[in-house]
Specification:
178 residues, alpha/beta, Rossmann fold, 2 domains, 10 helices, 5 strands, 60% helix
């Protein structure tokens, strides 16, 4: 079975890892990140002695995450819009990689990156969206989903209404994976 190709930005990868979702993400999707996201998550994270950096590096070493080089975008509307948006380098590179690989989903948790994805008509999701989907599809237990959502709330910059909506969806789930 071919896995769905997902591109992640730095914040989504870090939050997902801290929320205990890295193994599930790698099992469910083919996760690719641009070199800049590797630098922001692993290289910078190891300098700051972050445990999530070591976990992400291990996933890369075990071929759970693939680091890819991006190419400059061809002149045109997309390249112009990306240059004008106030995005960090990792987010810009993640969007470029999404476009260049014909990925099916962009994991983005930063408001500017989400706005760029909407503008460019990119299929995107946040880590809370993934937590809800995994719980609904019984990829993780309801309890693990609630715990992951609490971590995402603590580590991310989500509006409380967004977290409550995800929490309510998870609360309605019966049973789930043990």
């Amino acid at each position: 079975m071919t896995k769905l190709l997902v591109i992640s930005d730095s914040s989504s990868l870090i939050i997902g890892t801290k929320a205990g979702l890295l193994a599930a993400l790698c099992a469910e999707f083919r996760v690719e990140i641009p070199e800049k996201v590797f630098e922001e998550t692993v290289v910078a994270g190891k300098e700051l002695q972050k445990i999530d950096a070591l976990k992400i590096e291990e996933a890369i070493e075990k071929n759970g995450i693939f680091v890819k080089k991006t190419k400059p975008l061809k002149e045109g509307k997309t390249a112009e819009w990306l240059s004008r948006l106030n995005l960090d380098e990792g987010e810009t590179e993640a969007i470029k990689l999404y476009i260049q690989t014909n990925a099916k989903l962009l994991l983005a948790d930063d408001k500017q990156a989400i706005n760029a994805a909407k503008l460019l008509e990119i299929n995107w999701a946040t880590i809370p969206d993934i937590i809800v989907e995994f719980a609904e599809r019984k990829k993780i237990s309801r309890e693990k989903a609630l715990e992951a959502l609490k971590t995402a709330q603590t580590e991310g910059r989500y509006k409380i209404e967004f977290i409550l909506k995800a929490f309510n969806k998870i609360e309605k789930i019966k049973g789930g994976k043990k």
